[in-house]
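quick one, 352 residues, struct below
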Amino acid sequence: MAFLKNIRTLSPDEINEWFLSKGEKKYRAKQVWEWIWKKHALSIDDMTNLSHELREEMKKEFSLPAISMYTSQHSHDGTIKAGFKTSDGNIMEGVLIPAEGRQTACVSCQVGCSLNCKFCATGYLGRIRNLSFDEIYDQVVFLNELALQTSGKKLSNVVYMGMGEPMLNYRNVMKSIERVTAEDGLGMSPRRITVSTSGVSKMIKQLGDDGVKFNLAVSLHAAFDEKRSRIMPINDKNNIASLVEALNYFYEKTQNEITFEYILFKDFNDSLKDADQLIKLYRKIPVKLINVIEYNPIENAHFEKPELNVIHRFMDYLAAHKVNTRLRLSRGKDIDAACGQLANKAAKAENV
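---
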C-alpha cells in the first residue's frame, strides 16, 4: 500500500503546486487550505466544493488523519472533559473550563507522559507518543465548538496543561501555536495562550531564543531541590538553580509573563519554612503570579490536601511578604478533570 502524506503537513505553496500539476486552477489550493484550517474538515470527503473526482484523486496521495471526540463528561461546576482518539487509536484528554468572562481550553501535547511526577495521574501512564501539531490543533477546535454549543461564546484562552510535557514535544507544540494564532487558522492572540512546563531548562532558553509571544507557567510545587526531586524526578537534571537561570533568560528575551504553579501537599510543602523558601525564589525571577493549587487526589499516590486553615496560613504569609498570589480552586474534580487527574479513565472503562 502506497504511503499517503498527511495533507496538513503541506504548505500553501506545496498544495498549490500539486493542483497545478493536475491541471487544476490555482484557487483550488486556497479552497483546500480553508477546509483544513478554517472549516476544520475531518476528511477529504468533507471538502464538498471540490468535485467527487478531484477528491478521489486527492485520496490517492493524501490522508487527513484528524482526531475524533468519542466521549465527554460534564461536571456539576460546568467543566467538560473530552476524550479524544487519534487516527491510530491512541487516547488523550482535554478540558473546557468555563468561568466568568472566559472560556479556557486545556489541551494535551502527548499521549501519556514520561516525567513520572508522583502526584500526577498522567505520569503513571508513561509516555506512549508525542502528538502531532495538527492533533493538538484539533483539540483546540473541538473544545472551541463545545464552548460555542454550551455557552454561545468562543474560546478566550488556551492552556497547554493537559497530558504530557510540552517542552519534550517542542516542535509540534510550537507549530500548533502557530496554527492556533494564525489569521488563516483560529486567529487567537498568543497573549491568550499559556504553556506549562515541569521545567526543562534547556528548552525554556530555546523559547527565549525563538522570541515566543505566549506566556509561561512553571510547575514548581517545591522550592527546595531535595523535596522537588522526591516528587518530580525531572529536578535531578533540571534543578532549581538551572530553572532560575533559564527563566531569567526567557524573560530577558521575551518580557512575557511567568507564573509558578504550586500544589500544596499536607505535611510536605505547606509549612512557613516552605513559604519562606518560595518567597526567596519568587524574588530571584520576574514572576508575575504564584498560583497556589489545592491537591486533587489520584490513584497510586498517597498525598493529602492540607486543612483549610493551613492553606490560608500559607496564603496569608505569602501576601504579607508582598508576593502576588492566588488560590486556584480545582474545577471538574468529580469527573477527574482537575489538575493532575487526567488518566484516560473513561477510555479504560469503555475498553476503547
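Residues 346-352 have pLDDT under 50 and may be disordered.
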